[in-house]
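Need tokens for this chain, all 89 residues.
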Amino acid sequence: MESMKQAKEQLQDKELNNNRTMRSISDKIDDFFGWQHNYKQDSLVRGIIHGCYHGLWGVLKYMASNTVGSQREFKRAKDQFQRNGRARE
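Here are the structure tokens for all 89 residues:
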């Protein structure tokens, strides 16, 4: 029951979702492909993984009538998808 309560709280959170497990997975994939230094800017894989993750949370928050939280998640998803493997200036 505690996990259901936590899930409901996350759906109503107005801030961005920051899941350490997802971050750990993308770090391991980055390491596997050799992105070591500016990996957050250079990693196409990281941008795709995090873009999908924040997009999913945007949908879930929208379905829970949390429009502020969903808009923030969708904006972050867009930012992540725009990374496309090039370093930002």
